[in-house]
Amino acid sequence: MVELIIGFLCMVPIIGILIYNVVYPRESILYDNKWRFENFNFEPSKDAIKHHRCMSILVLGFTIFIMILLLFII
């Protein structure tokens, strides 16, 4: 039971980051990469934003599935 609680507590920040990636894909793509650009007119492509959002949704769904699976197994 303690392992389950620790597992959920460890997954909460991961889920928070994934939700941020889904809601703000443009900012999360450029996070920690803004120093590479000289001017401030950088913009990721629409395909990159769509891909980033889709992958974040898939990983978020997988993470929630694993949490539910662990809840019913343990």
From TrEMBL:
Pfam families: DUF6199. Residues 12-69 form the DUF6199 domain. It comes from the Bacteria. Keywords: Membrane, Transmembrane, Transmembrane helix. The chain crosses the membrane at residues 6-24, 54-73. This is DUF6199 domain-containing protein.
